[in-house]
Amino acid sequence: DTAIVLFTRDLRVHDHPALSAACERGGRVVPLFVLDPEVPAGHRTGFLLDCLADLRESLRSRHGDLLVRRGDVVAETMRLAREVEADAIYASADVSELGRSRERRLAGERVDVRLFPGLTVVPPGALTPSGGGDHYRVFTPYWRAWSRSRRRAVLPAPARVPVPSGLVAGDLPDHSSHPALEGGESAARARMNRWMTRGLDGYADGHDDLAGDRTSRLSPYLRFGCVSPLELADHAEAGADEEHTFVRQLCWRDFFHQVAWAFPRINRDDYRPGSRRWRDDAHAVSAWKEGMTGVPIVDAGMRQLLAEGWMHNRARMIVADYLVNHLGVDWRAGAAHFFDLLLDGDVANNSGNWQWMAGTGNSTRPGRVLNPVRQARRFDPGAAYIRRYVPELAGLPAIDAREPWRLSKEVPGYPAPLTPVE
Ligand code: FAD
């Protein structure tokens, strides 16, 4: 018996139910990843290739290997299935439209397709509201049900992955790692362990402080499944306040995943249709993308995104709110830009949060608008975040860096605000 384990966004060996089940079956196991040549090389490519190199290493240390092929995922998987005479395909169940269409197409082939949990702490659809419906639309009741739910046990990495002999692994393209963050399960586990022993301290009070940068930065690893969200939640669930605040963030991730699972067009259509009208403003959109709106806290966030492929959550909220509520521009334009640049860019979290900010999604207060100046005063009181990312303002005292329009003279190279902000 031979089973292919098709890896997608679950690039790890620890707590990998599909891999463990395939290894326990007793036959041969062929781990596979198919690179999609249609996806343009972007910010996430180097990170993904790090993940694949690391996964290959750890499978090899378990007597296994990782086969890498290029092309259409279903065609390549079936070609390999014929080559190795596999009778089953094991994979982690996905939530996105693309992932689920891959699963449907595989199910249409003459092979046994088995799907396993692993992408979220609680699988989408496992919790349903008592009032009816296939998913939760509101976070707080979801959080309550989620916190009480029974979980599967975290699985150890399999000791041995018995690949058949004579397979050609396939080369991984040469690449350079992301300058700020190395991809892969080894780096993810090291970061998770550091975070649990040292980082979590102060999270409850500090996670909104923009300059303090006190969050885990585990999101790219969660995006590619280098770390199991269940293992992370189990680790963090000891019960103190810090853990509680952090685990709640992991629950947000599950929440948006179950929304995306139930509403696959989340990246295109309003979850609550007809609730907003948008204006076209190409000039404003490009100023926003470049970090040249003239509103320093917005520009700092957008420039962090350009420089690092990552942005602090509070800044994501401020810049998203600015685009949709102050400039009146369609959330889809913002979400697409984020998706292109974010290392953690992920359909469920990205579109779910954008729709939340735009008032077209799951927010229970859809009319709420943030004041960027008040946000900056509260979450960047010393303007250290602004000065870090907007060098034109770096030499100014905090209040002037935050509100340069108060100065009698223009700051060289820095624009006047696109919109009145007070
Ligand atoms: P931590 O504070 O350490 O949180 C731990 C984990 O909890 C994160 O890694 C993430 O997996 C999860 N989490 C935290 N906040 C949220 C949230 N609001 N929604 C869902 N999950 C959350 N997150 C993505 O992973 N991918 C995206 O494409 C994405 N797009 C976003 C777009 C907008 C407009 C906004 C407001 C938020 C977006 N987020 C997205 C959520 C959040 O900003 C990031 O998950 C977080 O900043 C990642 O940093 P961290 O790992 O240090 O977070």
Structure description:
This protein has 422 residues and is of the alpha/beta class. The chain is 45% helix and 6% strand. It has three domains: 2-119, HUPs (Rossmann fold, 3-Layer(aba) Sandwich), CATH 3.40.50.620; 120-152 and 186-262, Serine Threonine Protein Phosphatase 5, Tetratricopeptide repeat (Alpha Horseshoe), CATH 1.25.40.80; 282-406, DNA Cyclobutane Dipyrimidine Photolyase, subunit A, domain 3 (Orthogonal Bundle). It is built from 18 helices and five strands. Strands 3-2-1-4-5 form a five-stranded parallel beta sheet, sandwiched between helices. The longest helix has 22 residues, at 241-262. The chain binds flavin-adenine dinucleotide. Flavin-adenine dinucleotide binds next to helix 8, helix 10, helix 13 and helix 15.
